[in-house]
């Protein structure tokens, strides 16, 4: 891990302002964006009979995700001994002339306490995390055994919400283009077509405001594309963590294993190159020497 934050204050959780990370603001922006567009633009476009379910299901989902997102951000995943001995002010700089590693014999020389055998020191939070998995930039908080399940639930609820938004956006865009010249037959699938029977002028709304067709379809299309990107990222991340759980690994352990494997392959490749570049006569001499 990098050491760019060693010697600074220890961060308590994702709400600690030293420093904030841009990714956590981006994450909350999209939670707000999807919730506003969904409830003010997408659901009103559903058939009247579908709207109660559309409001209730995603309302429960958004509330659940918001709570999980906040909880996973505010939980302090630090080692218990670190919590008990937390000090005000900056922590000491790590002196590599005295110690090879930050944690040796279960003692952290930055936190200045004995820690759990599975704890690792996070340079971004500048504290030891029990069962350290990774530092999540979207939460601006470390993920360890104390908030890992909440983190997984946060990913799950976000993925489900994104998939529902994608499905509804695809449905509304498809109905619009299929029936825009035959609104009578599309009235049962798109509420705006139903209302067009009793309304003249603009029949589409964005944020409850009348807009032209192109404005509405543009917003729904953009929202669907953003939800698709979000679902792709969330699905990949969730699948990766499911894979890790099946293998009994943390993200940190997986990265270390991958790094060790790459270093081993690099060493083997270097040895093969040295052997291939070796003079055949020298090889024969060496072989003869061992035979003697």
Walk me through this protein's architecture.
This protein has about 290 residues and is mainly alpha-helical. Helix content is about 55%, strand content about 10%. It has a 3-stranded antiparallel β-sheet, with no helix packed on it. It starts with about 20 loop residues before the first helix and ends with a helix. The model is unreliable at about 1-5 and about 285-290 (pLDDT under 50).
Question: Keywords, please?
Answer:
9 strands; three-stranded antiparallel sheet; disordered C terminus; elongated; 292 residues; mainly alpha
Largest sheet: 3 strands, antiparallel
Mean pLDDT: 83
Structural class: mainly alpha
Share of residues in helices: 55-70%
Q: Radius of gyration, rounded?
A: 28 Å
Global shape: elongated
Low-confidence stretches: 1-7, 283-292
| SSE topology string | HHHEEEEEEEHHHEEHHH
Strand neighbour order, sheet with most strands: 1-2-3
* SS summary, helix count: 9
Topology:
Blueprint: H1 22-42, H2 51-74, H3 80-84, E1 103-104, E2 107-108, E3 113-114, E4 120-122, E5 127-129, E6 134-136, E7 141-143, H4 148-179, H5 183-186, H6 191-195, E8 204-206, E9 209-211, H7 213-247, H8 251-277, H9 280-291
Antiparallel strand pairs: 1-2, 2-3, 4-5, 6-7, 8-9
Helix pairs in contact: 1-7, 2-4, 4-7
Give a nutshell description of this structure.
The protein has helices spanning 22-42, 51-74, 80-84, 148-179, 183-186, 191-195, 213-247, 251-277, 280-291; strands spanning 103-104, 107-108, 113-114, 120-122, 127-129, 134-136, 141-143, 204-206, 209-211.
